[in-house]
Specification:
The protein is mostly helical. It is built from 3 helices and 2 strands; from the N terminus they run ββααα. The protein has a two-stranded antiparallel ribbon with strand order 1-2. The longest helix has 21 residues. The chain is flat. The chain starts with 6 loop residues before the first strand and ends in a 10-residue tail after the last helix.
Length: 109
């Protein structure tokens, strides 16, 4: 509680196989999203869930869309989860293409 920031990002850790004499880092502070802010993370507010359900219904009737990732599913996910769901979705999508069935609408199983 004594630390005012959420986390520190230091770019040299993104590519640990590289060597650099200098580094760049920044400190991230959490705050509630205000009306004039650009949101970095989705929130599952009731209006957003209602809108997502409408999109899913439209996609099911049109048979034309899939929803993936943080913004597509209105969920906060760690990147390992996003990548894992994407790989799983790709496998399910390719199976549907192969057997001629309808591709999945939603990435989460």
């Amino acid at each position: 509680l004594d630390v005012g920031y959420t986390r520190i990002h230091e770019h040299k850790h993104f590519a640990p196989w590289e060597q650099h004499d200098n580094t760049v880092y920044f400190t991230e502070y959490s705050k509630e999203t205000e009306p004039d802010d650009l949101p970095y993370y989705p929130k599952r507010l009731s209006a957003d869930v209602d809108l997502l359900q409408k999109y899913i219904q439209l996609a099911e009737s049109e048979k034309a869309a899939s929803f993936m990732g943080r913004l597509g599913t209105y969920r906060y996910l760690n990147m390992d989860q996003v990548i894992g769901e994407s790989l799983d979705f790709a496998g399910r999508f390719l199976k549907c293409v192969h057997d001629g069935s309808r591709p999945p609408i939603f990435s989460a199983t």
